[in-house]
UniProtKB/TrEMBL annotation:
PANTHER family referenced in this protein's UniProt entry, alphabetically: CYCLIC NUCLEOTIDE PHOSPHODIESTERASE INHIBITOR, EXTRACELLULAR MATRIX PROTEIN A-RELATED
InterPro entries registered for this protein in UniProt: ECM-enzyme_regulator, S_mold_repeat
Species of provenance: Dictyostelium discoideum (Social amoeba)
Keywords from the UniProt entry: Signal
Signal peptide per UniProt: 1-19
Signal among keywords: yes
Lineage: superkingdom: Eukaryota
Protein name: Uncharacterized protein
GO BP of this protein: socially cooperative development
Amino acid sequence: MKSIIILSFILSIISFSNGTIVKCTSASCSSLNNNCVNHYCNPRAGCYGIDKCVRIDACHIVSCDLNNGSCINTKANCDDGDPCTDDFCHNGYGCFSLPNNKHPSVICQKNCNDNNPCTDDFCDFTNTCQHTLKNCEDNDFCTIDSCGPNGCVHTNISCDDNDPCTSDFCSIMYGCYHEQIECSIKVPCSTDIECNRYNLCETYTCDLISNICKYSTKFCNGFPCINNECMTGVIYN
Ligand SMILES: *[C@@H]1O[C@H](CO)[C@@H](O)[C@H](O)[C@H]1NC(C)=O
Ligand SMILES: *[C@@H]1O[C@H](CO)[C@@H](O)[C@H](O)[C@H]1NC(C)=O
């Protein structure tokens, strides 16, 4: 009997859109696009912009040419102006300085290589080997960074939220995000908890008159909620 009721709910699909506040559409947001910023729609919060240009690593700063969308990565200047340090750049964590061998009483000459691909090895100004854990952070929120026998490993994350009512994307700036899409399957329910889709960007309740789940987007002070988190940034409306 229950399965017949569920089937009849599924067959009585009309649309998901009643009760949804639609502040924007993909088309209205993409009209804000320029050569440097793509805009996306969060139907409740409005359009939001994501820069197209990404810095290639922590040793560069990036800018975007509005005329032709060219991304310009410029090497960071790591010079700290201190003659007692040598200045370096590590593409994971950026500029750093080490005391140099110009200290009068110390000559650093050890080979500090420990053959561990997960450490950075250097000889400090007291002629002592130092091994610091390699920083594998690649500034890409779509990967999980770890270190293994061959050094840094960057593993893609899956953004699939198993929710037929969202399209799933990954942005290297924000990680996973999920755009609500029109969803024609109404979820039958008798208690609120049956409506839980484990999406912290929405609130859910079971409408006890229709026995159909009702979802609404979590209120984030006007900002989109992406990947279970309220975003901050620039909203164009
Ligand atoms: C974009 O414009 C800048 C400045 O005029 C120029 O230096 C650059 O070469 C252009 N890039 C492309 C791909 O046309
Ligand atoms: C990881 O994701 C990137 C960007 O989407 C893609 O180019 C690459 O092929 C993926 N790598 C693997 C092993 O799936």
